[in-house]
Structure formats: C-alpha cells, structure tokens
Amino acid sequence: MPIVIFELPDGTQRKVTAGSGTVLMQAAVSNGVDGIVAECGGNASCATCHVYVDERHGELVGPPNDVEDEMLDFTAAERRPTSRLSCQVQVSDALDGLVVHIPEEQV
Ligand code: FES
After folding, report:
1. Ligand 1 neighbourhood includes 44 CB (under 6 angstroms)
2. What is stated as this protein's family in its record (predicted)?
C-alpha cells in the first residue's frame, strides 16, 4: 500500500499508509493527522480538508474536477496552484511517496 507524507505547518512530517481505493482525507483522519478537519465527511462541500500538493508531485495527482475547483475558492487558507481537497484525491499505488502540505488553517 502506498505511503503518503503529510507535512504539518511546523514542518513535522507524518508518514501514513494509505489504502488504495480510498482518498487522502481518509488516510489522514484514520491516522490522526492534525490539521485535516473534514467537516463534511468527504462530500467536497466544506473545504476543511485542504492540502497543498508538493510541487514535485503536482502532475502525479492531477487537477481538481469542476466541483472541487469551485470549493477551492472557499478554503480558509489561501488557495494556491497546488491546492487540492484531500477528500477528492484518490489513492493509488502511483501516489507512493506523495508529499502534501497542510495549511495553517482550515476553518
Ligand atoms: S471533507 Fe469536506 S470538502 Fe473534503
């Protein structure tokens, strides 16, 4: 199963095992990673699971779909070109070693 690295705003890294076929948000929440609130439970309607995909991995993850793209305008922390909602990022073996950065605030 792929290993995904969540980097907290203070630079601390949490390496977690993410099940293929799940989403990044689930990997964070089930492993108690701080900073992923996920109020809506993964429905792309709260923007509290915002992450910045590491610039080295942008192509690997790909762009948001239209619904996610609209919600990304409502993130608490600034939206950046690498912003994604972690509940909309499907985990696959190809994401092994992925690094995502957790923003300073989610609400
Ligand atoms: S958990 Fe609500 S938008 Fe991702």
Report:
1. yes
2. Belongs to the adrenodoxin/putidaredoxin family.
3-class SS string, the chain: CCEEEEECCCCCEEEEECCCCCEHHHHHHHCCCCCCCCCCCCCCCCCCCEEEECHHHHHHHCCCCHHHHHHHHHCCCCCCCCEEEHHHCECCHHHCCCEEECCCCCC
- Ligand 1 pocket check for 53: Cβ under 6 Å: no
**pLDDT (0 to 100) of residue 106:** 98
Strand partners, 16: 4
DSSP annotation of 57: G
Ligand 1 midpoint to CA 41 (Å) = 6
Q: What is the pLDDT of residue 50?
A: 98
User: What would the pLDDT profile of 25-60 be if each residue is shown by its tens digit?
Assistant: 999 999 999 999 999 999 999 999 999 999 999 888
